[in-house]
Model the fold of this input.
Amino acid sequence: MSDLILASGSTHRAQLLKNVGLAFRQEPSTLDERAIESPLDDADVLPEDRAEILAEAKALDVSEKNMGSWVIGCDQILAFENQVLHKPKNMEDARRRLLLLSGKTHYLHSAVVLVKDGATIWRHVTPCKMTMRPLTPEFIGRHLADVGDEILSSVGAYHTEGKGAQLFEEIGGDLFSIIGLPLLPLLEALRKNGVIDG
Done:
């Protein structure tokens, strides 16, 4: 198998790749994502395009230091009522996030790109439609106390692969993409490019 790098520090994305038996190493990009996003705000870039741009920038950053390796870049954007929401800064921010999303629909746009030798070989974005059930402030408080500050790693302040599934009444999209990595399209791209056995 070719040398494969995940340009992300996410334990959740890494676990998905481990679960399907891929041999890879993690090397998170050191790019300032907010600095990349700032001009995108002014240009009114669509959330799905923003996710792809950020995923590609991170993969290219890591690829430049690892010529000859295949690099997977990922990003996830939460779009809600014409806003792009970022990861909550603290538990109070997470509480406000869940109150904001309670009883409403938002979208997760999960992007993945494949880069080699500083060139983008393949890119993909999966949109997921997420509808939360109405949540009381009291339930939100108990839920956040139960899940703890690991929730701050999620743009939506939830992990649907765990207790966060209780927050939803309907989900449109695959669980891999909701976690943050469109796994099935990525595996197909890796096979087509001869990176893994097909």
Notes: Residues 105 and 131 are 4 Å apart (CA to CA). Strands lie at 4-6, 25-26, 70-80, 83-85, 105-116, 119-132, 168-172. The domain at 4-192 is CATH 3.90.950.10 (Maf protein). The chain has one domain: 4-192.
